[in-house]
């Protein structure tokens, strides 16, 4: 079966998506506190994470590791409004990036983004390690469901 990574158009398409998303997030008044300034390498990191999660190369894990993801979100104090806006802006960027308009693909991507935003929010609010979301690896997302083990 074709992976979400392949169906999306591979690295080029996902990089285009993440570049559009990041530009939108930086300009968004609700997301400004979460994305206050453009960070070098952030688009690449977003691309690597999404690619790996969608069945592509494991660059995020090998180059950064999942602890990096926990560390960058820790103490951001992401609000419900920011979490929801993140999802909205990401879905807008998918349209603008020209990713496939297939309903099953869009459902899988939406569920992936919603899950990721929930994990990021939980980790951003964690006062102790016990409060962190239990996921400790890039989730392997598929058409029907995700594998978060």
UniProtKB/TrEMBL annotation:
> Per UniProt, what is one Pfam family of this protein?
Bac_globin
- On the tree of life, the source organism's domain of life is Bacteria
Which residues are heme-binding?
45
The record, for InterPro entries, names: Globin-like_sf, Globin/Proto, Hemoglobin_trunc
Keyword field contains Phosphoprotein: no
Sorted alphabetically, the keyword list is:
Heme, Iron, Metal-binding, Transport
Tell me yes or no: is Transmembrane helix among this UniProt entry's keywords.
Answer: no
In the record, what terms sit under GO molecular function? heme binding; metal ion binding; oxygen binding
Protein name, as recorded: Hemoglobin
Q: Give the species.
A: Asanoa ishikariensis
Taxonomic lineage: Bacteria, Bacillati, Actinomycetota, Actinomycetes, Micromonosporales
């Amino acid at each position: 079966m074709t992976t979400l990574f392949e169906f999306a158009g591979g690295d080029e398409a996902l990089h285009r998506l993440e570049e559009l998303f990041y530009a939108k997030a930086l300009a968004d008044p609700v997301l400004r506190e979460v994305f206050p300034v453009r960070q070098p390498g952030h688009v690449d990191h977003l691309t690597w994470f999404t690619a790996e999660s969608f069945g592509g190369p494991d660059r995020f894990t090998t180059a950064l590791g999942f602890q990096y993801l926990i560390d960058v979100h820790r103490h951001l104090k992401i609000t419900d409004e920011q979490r929801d806006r993140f999802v909205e802006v990401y879905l807008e960027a998918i349209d603008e990036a020209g990713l496939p308009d297939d309903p099953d693909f869009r459902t899988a991507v939406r569920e992936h983004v919603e899950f990721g935003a929930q994990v990021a929010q939980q980790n951003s609010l964690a006062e102790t390690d016990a409060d962190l979301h239990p996921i400790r690896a890039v989730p392997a997302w598929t058409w029907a469901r995700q594998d978060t083990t």
